What does this fold into?
Amino acid sequence: MLHTSHVSCCASLRQALLQGWQQSFPLHSSPFRQMAASSGATPRELLALCQDLHRKGSLQLVLPTWGDGLLRTRWRLAFSPAGDDAPLARALAALPGCFHMERSTEPVPGLPSVWAEMEASDDASLDRQLHRLPLLPVARIALAPVTPGAHACDDVDTARALEAGLQLCSRPYAECARRLGCSESKLLARLLKWRRSGVLAGLSLKPPPSRVPQPGLLALWTGTPAPEALQKLHDHPGIDRVITAPGTVGWPWRLSVVLHAAPQLALDQLREAVLHVGLRLPDASLKLQIERPRDHALLFRLQATDA
It folds into this structure.
């Protein structure tokens, strides 16, 4: 009976880990002990399961999610590769700042066929990454404005160590502090300070993003949408992304909408969505394969070699 209960506990714990740890990874000298207290497993069982899932590629190391208090820049980019877009897609996915990519499955003449979203610590860092690509974007637009009060990272070495991932061991902060040449208490104090100031949203322990591309659709409008329609688009459950722009020669699309949809249903779902919010049909649309190279942009991973 005890054996059955143990197996059931491990199975439920494995499921919880594969779905992503719902709570933020504890900022505590013994985080797995704290997590075990709420999971029904012992710290040793929890850690062993995490290590096993990581070896199998089903669980990432502990990684940071940067908060709105960290100064950074975010861009949407458009590319027009000639012929096969696979080399560009591979190069984009390798850039630490790239976290979202869209590849047209049926390119339309006159429209970019590859779209990507990137974050970087500043515009210079973005440009250094872009110059590693086989071709530069034909269009780009800045996305979210800088959060008032956001400031640059005050300890790049620690930020880079976090982005490399905290090890799955009983004292991950102590191990990270050893690599940084500081004490565990000093490291934890800095991370707690970052979290209070909004620089660090939290740390997470979860599976890697799926490597399987998801089908979708990109719709583009050159006209300016009404504020009411725009709000309805943001609230619509079938819409993944809504991007607005002033409309320029370099980026003529004042509204871009991305939705996840099966190829045979994508256009019908788009028509239903735009009619629901009171928009006319788009000026152009592209069927997509949507890829996620990583959960979040890595803002510091390659900073040393970029300088």
Summary: Residues 1-9, 303-307 have pLDDT under 50 and may be disordered. The beta strands are 63-66, 73-79, 98-104, 114-120, 139-142, 200-204, 214-221, 239-244, 255-260, 284-291. The two ends are 60 Å apart (CA to CA). The first helix runs from residue 2 to 18.
